[in-house]
Every structure is written in structure tokens, then in C-alpha cells.
Amino acid sequence: MQEPQIGYPHEAGILRGVAQRVLRSLRKLQQKGCRGTAVAREKAKDVLQSVKHYHLFAKTKEEKDQVLKQIVHQTQDLIEASQAVRKRVQDTTQQAVRSAAEKLRQMAAVTHALIPQIKQWLETGVVASGKILHAGITTARAIVKNKVGKKVEFGLKWLITRIEGGYVFGKVVPAQADERKMPLEALSQYREVFGQKATPQMMVYDRGGSAAKTVKKLQQEGIPQVGIEPVGNAAWSIAEGDQKEVKSQRAKIEGSLGALKSQRYAFNHGRQRSDQTLVATGQWAMVCLNLNKLARDIVEKASRKRRAAA
Q1: Which whole number is the average pLDDT over 165-173?
Q2: 170 forms bridges with which residues in the sheet?
Q3: In which domain, by residue range, is 52 found?
């Protein structure tokens, strides 16, 4: 899980994020000489004012719900007005104007999915599945971990693969992706890097990937040792002697993930505010870890040669 540095994702705060992004884009359009932004800008300010009232003056749940309904209606009016502005400038050739118009389009798409989710919560008290948590980082989701002191994590779910030597690579996967299918996805990712005919001699995964169909499929793909820790009293698919190696590799994987999430590589708790920059930061962190590992390996190899020659 890659956790960006965002506040608790309450509905009023998410809608404030939408209004702030729309307002910044409208101001850019105004600065570039685009007319007709005044009405939409005022509507954005209305949303921000109502969110401020929500935080400072609405004390009871009834009051907060009432103000939130008002914010929802104001946001819908804002999006309608901003899209009218976008349509007037969509044929421009100026890069700055095109960028601002694209941001308005993105915020319309976000609210199209977000508003029904908020309305569902207001009517039923049940959080919608796949709830959007941030106006800019729309792929971030809440994932229940039930860890001590942290039951829920907010962010992007990554599938990270560690190969022999401690080098890592990975990609973002859907938050609700079936964990039992992740070993198959890891094999696909491995072959994307090393070639479609590449097959690891051993694949290791925790018990979340334990499924008879998954193990059988991996074996059919030619993997000699499928080291997926079974759930409960189920039997291992590898010999007892190899099970110790699987547990050892699992510990090394956790060590690599811990290093990746340390302050050194900034994989977690960055101040990125878009899906693209957050994913890019995750990839950048893995590249940095791999380069440091490569440098250490080169130095160690040279040191061994000097010792052998002495």
C-alpha cells in the first residue's frame, strides 16, 4: 500500500478539493484572457465558504448532514457552470488554456462518480463500494488491514515483486483485486520484464494468494516450486525442506518492502496530488532502491576480487 499525505477523506473535504481545483483552473483561464469565468468562480467560492461553515459551525450530525447536502447542490451547480466555460475554450491552441480546460473536464468526471456515492451515504449511512477519497488521486481507496493501531489504510495498492539479489519492481493494481489471483498477476508482471518465455524456478507468496486453482495454474505455466503458504491446515505444494526457503524469502520480501517505505525513498506520505505523480513517485522509489542495491553489489564484487588477488 502506498499512502499519500492526505487528510482524513470526509465528504466535505473531498468536495472542497474539487472546488479548489476548479477555481485554480478558472483563474488561469481568466489570466489568459478567457471571458465568462466570473459566474463559475463565484460558485466555487460558495462551495468553499459552505465547507468552512461545515467545519466551524455545524456541530450536530443533523446540522452537518444539512450543510453537506447544500455543498453537494452547490458543487453540482459549480460543475455545470465550469463545463459551460470549458466548452467555450475547448478549441483553443494555447497549451495553458488546454491544460486548465482538461482539469475542468477531470473534475466533472470525478463529481459524476463522487456525488452519487455521497448521496448514498447521506440516505443510507453506508459507504459506497470503491469510494473516491481524494479529488486529485482518484485511484486511492480505503483498504481494511486490521493492523494494530491502523485498521484502515488509504492509498494505492501495489503488487511488488522481489527477485534474487533484492531487486524489486511492481505496478498498481485495483484496490479490490482478488488476492488469490495476485500470484498469477505477479508471473505476468515477471514476464513483462524478462520476456514471455521467462519462468522463475520458485514463486513465493503469502497465504492471501492461497488457492488450489492458482497453484495448479502456476504449475501448468512451468514453475517447478510454487511456494504459496497454505491457509489453515491445507497441505503445501512443495517439499518440507523447501518450505524453510519459502519462509526465508518471505522475510526478505518484507525487508525490501520496509526499506522501500522508509523515509529514504519517499514511497509513502508524499505530497503528490494526482494519480500520475503518485504512481511515478512509487516507480522512482523502486528505481532508487535498485540503483543503491546495484552500487553496493558492484563495490562488493570489486572488493572480493581485490581480496582474491591479494
Answers
A1: 94
A2: 160
A3: 11-124
